[in-house]
Amino acid sequence: MNRSQTRILARRSAMQAIYQWQMTGYNLAEIERQFIEEHGLGYADPAYFNELLHEVPKNLDTIDNALSEFTDRPISEIDPVERAVLRIGAYELLHRPELPFKVILNENINLAKTFGSIHGHKFVNGILDKVAHKIRSVEIAAYVNKKG
Hints:
The protein has a single domain (3-147), classed as Orthogonal Bundle (N-utilizing Substance Protein B Homolog, Chain A), CATH 1.10.940. Helices cover 76% and strands 0% of the residues. The chain contains 8 helices and no strands. The chain has helices spanning 3-24, 28-38, 46-58, 60-68, 80-95, 101-115, 120-135, 137-147. Helix 5 (80-95) packs antiparallel against helix 6 (101-115) and helix 5 packs parallel to helix 7. The model has no long low-confidence stretch (mean pLDDT 95).
């Protein structure tokens, strides 16, 4: 498996673990231990899983502020699956500049399609696209100009 594929799996596992954290409020180290023991990470990148699981909650205020600017309701009222996906996507847009914005959007939209409600991926797409335009405006402009 290449790095991209192992990151996709890490993102997927981290989304499930962050969902669990949101729903239970359990200690992150306990969730990580439990998640790895019960589900395993398979071929997922364990370092990236660990980063997302611990850094998303650590940066929650910044992440939620970036998201709330573009939501029509408080973050706490967003479906918990879509909230976990949005938080991962916003974290990556804010803190992983080496990841292209299109990759971040596509991967998180796919997570919402797999785990979210029927139209949840459209909601995730709309919010993350707006966050990307604000945070990654230079990258997006270069992408648009390159496409011609």
